[in-house]
């Protein structure tokens, strides 16, 4: 299939699935679309037992999408920028300490807790994984997915302070999580990759404490700095245009995202963090009236439409990935997947609880903050994309890659379908 055929198919599925969800399921968009895609995947897999060519054809089409490249290389920058545009900057600055601590300390805590629990629990279920690969799984599953979380926030009413904590953490811990993942991947590759290690993340060879700190600092600080520069320049340019040419404003924002994303990749800084910071600079929320008018309403309508369309396509792709991931099923898969879900929830609870308990000495948090942050920490396409990216590393044993991928998929599906559907109950008094 050509690129045009693939795009046409995705847009067709997004339109049909959205119509089914609106008229029949009536679920939040993210949850409904993924549920329909999962049901379609199951139907295709069942049909494949009678007509094997059906499953083979569907699998061929799904693999042509290259989920990792589509999400991390194309969609993610647009989605993060669109999400950050609607965040209230004033509220975010008020909650900056909580957001920063949860996005960094919380993500690091969760990574090591998940890795350690997996290392000791999975062997009991018959799956032995070296500790570094357990940490790798912890790194890719610990960040909450901003795309899924922001879609959830739109559906359920929350207090503004709690809403900004969840939204801010999910936007920033995504970039932090990717950096942690790349760092651990570099260490694993230098240890197990042999000759391949020379071509690892950013060409890392021997990994030392200083090189890890340098990589982390370059990615995080560089991404934030680049986003601030691009955001400031973009905001001044939009203010100069002053809504006289709405089509030019849209083109400017598109250019900022596309050029900024490509430049971040070339100079090895965090593109996701750059997009978030840039979106916060250009967004209107939380500013005085004069500054708020710099970015016209037409720009927000355009990005809202693009955000909704890409969200629909993303979660349909996540659901359809089951067709490919079904190849990793084994008798112990569901036991391991279930254990992974419990481990991730436990790590999320501890990773949220400890920082909040520590910060509670100096500030007051809303009731049920810990439980809402724990249960509302949805995982999504980013975790699946990072797990799929491991397939290209030949030095990693197939059973490790398959275990990480299947467990990741179980955690993502559980978080969106089960946690997402039951969030409303937690928010009731």
TrEMBL record:
UniProt-recorded name of the protein: Cation:proton antiporter
Protein topology in the membrane: Multi-pass membrane protein
Pfam families for the chain: Na_H_Exchanger
Domain Cation/H+ exchanger transmembrane, first and last residues per copy: 13-428
Lineage of origin: Bacteria, Pseudomonadati, Bacteroidota, Cytophagia, Cytophagales
Record family assignment: Belongs to the monovalent cation:proton antiporter 1 (CPA1) transporter (TC 2.A.36) family.
Record bears the keyword Membrane: yes
Keyword flag Transmembrane helix: yes
Species annotation: Marinoscillum luteum
Gene3D superfamilies given in the database record: 6.10.140.1330
Alphabetically ordered keywords of this record: Antiport, Cell membrane, Ion transport, Membrane, Sodium, Sodium transport, Transmembrane, Transmembrane helix, Transport
InterPro entries: Cation/H_exchanger_CPA1 (IPR018422), Cation/H_exchanger_TM (IPR006153)
Location within or outside the cell: Cell membrane
Main subcellular localisation: membrane
Entry's transmembrane regions: 6-24, 31-50, 70-87, 99-122, 128-153, 174-192, 212-235, 309-329, 335-358, 370-391, 403-427
């Amino acid at each position: 299939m050509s690129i045009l055929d693939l795009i046409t198919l995705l847009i067709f599925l997004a339109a049909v699935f959205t119509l089914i969800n609106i008229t029949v399921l009536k679920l939040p968009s993210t949850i409904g679309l993924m549920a329909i895609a999962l049901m379609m995947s199951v139907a295709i897999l069942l049909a494949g037992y009678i007509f094997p060519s059906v499953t083979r054809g569907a699998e061929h089409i799904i693999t042509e999408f290259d989920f990792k490249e589509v999400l991390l290389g194309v969609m993610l920058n647009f989605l993060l920028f669109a999400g950050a545009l609607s965040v209230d900057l004033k509220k975010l600055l008020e909650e900056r300490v909580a957001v920063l601590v949860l996005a960094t300390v919380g993500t690091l805590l969760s990574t090591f807790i998940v890795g350690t629990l997996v290392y000791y629990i999975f062997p009991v279920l018959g799956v032995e994984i070296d500790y570094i690969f357990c940490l790798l799984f912890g790194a890719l599953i610990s960040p909450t997915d901003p795309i899924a979380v922001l879609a959830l926030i739109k559906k359920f009413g929350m207090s503004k302070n709690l809403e900004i904590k969840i939204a801010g953490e999910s936007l920033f811990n995504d970039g932090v999580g990717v950096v942690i993942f790349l760092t651990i991947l570099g260490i694993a590759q230098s240890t197990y990759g042999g000759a391949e290690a020379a071509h690892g993340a950013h060409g890392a060879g021997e990994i030392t404490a200083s090189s890890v700190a340098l990589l982390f600092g370059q990615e995080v600080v560089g991404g934030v700095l680049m986003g601030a520069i691009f955001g400031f320049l973009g905001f001044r340019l939009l203010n100069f245009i002053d809504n006289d040419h709405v089509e030019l404003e849209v083109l400017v924002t598109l250019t900022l995202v596309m050029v900024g994303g490509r430049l971040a990749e070339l100079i090895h800084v965090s593109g996701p963090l750059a997009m978030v910071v840039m979106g916060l600079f250009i967004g209107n929320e939380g500013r005085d009236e004069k500054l708020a008018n710099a970015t016209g309403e037409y720009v927000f309508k355009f990005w809202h439409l693009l955000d909704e369309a890409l969200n629909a396509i993303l979660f349909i792709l996540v659901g359809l990935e089951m067709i490919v991931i079904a190849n990793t099923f084994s008798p112990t898969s569901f036991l391991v997947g279930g254990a992974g879900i419990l481990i991730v929830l436990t790590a999320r609870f501890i990773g949220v609880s400890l920082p909040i308990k520590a910060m509670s000495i100096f500030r007051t948090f809303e009731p049920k903050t810990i439980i809402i942050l724990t249960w509302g920490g949805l995982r999504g396409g980013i975790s699946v994309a990072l797990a799929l990216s491991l397939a290209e590393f030949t030095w990693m044993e197939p059973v490790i890659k398959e275990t990480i991928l299947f467990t990741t998929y179980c955690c993502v599906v559980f978080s969106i379908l089960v946690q997402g559907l039951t969030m409303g109950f937690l928010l009731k008094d």
